[in-house]
Amino acid sequence: MAEKTNQTKRPYAMHIPEETREHFKAAHQEFHETIKTMLPPEFLEHRNKAKREMLLAFRSLIDHSIAHMEEHEKKA
Q1: Considering only CA atoms, which of 6, 36, 12 is closest in space to residue 24?
Q2: What pLDDT sits at residue 36?
Q3: What counts of helices (H) and strands (E) characterise the chain?
Q4: Is the pLDDT of residue 9 over 80?
Q5: What span, in angstroms and rounded, lies between the C-alpha atoms of 75 and 68?
């Protein structure tokens, strides 16, 4: 079962050598680091704070949904 899931996530894993995939992964990370150096630190700080706020908003939505479900379970 785990093998099928692994193939679904990486359909070309059997066709692309491991060394090539590792190289691509490293290049991808380096690309992100390069982009970070081109952006002002204030932008990155604001982006991180915005991400945190979005996650807190989702947490609030999930908490509300759970409370709503529990309320309906008590009534039943």
Answers
A1: 12
A2: 92
A3: 3, 0
A4: no
A5: 11
Cut 0.70: pTM above it? no
* pLDDT at residue number 57: 98
Contact status, residue 44 vs residue 36, Cβ threshold 8 Å: yes
- For 34, the token pair is 């390069």
For 53, phi then psi, to 5°, come to -60, -40
Residues 6+ apart with CB under 8 A from 7: 13, 14
Using CA atoms, how far apart are residues 63 and 40, in angstroms rounded to an integer?
35
Cα separation of 43 and 49, whole Å? 10
Give the model's pLDDT for residue 10.
72
Length of the chain: 76
Does 1 score more than 60 pLDDT?
no
**SS3 (DSSP) at 11:** coil
**Residues 23, 68: Cα–Cα separation, whole Å:** 48
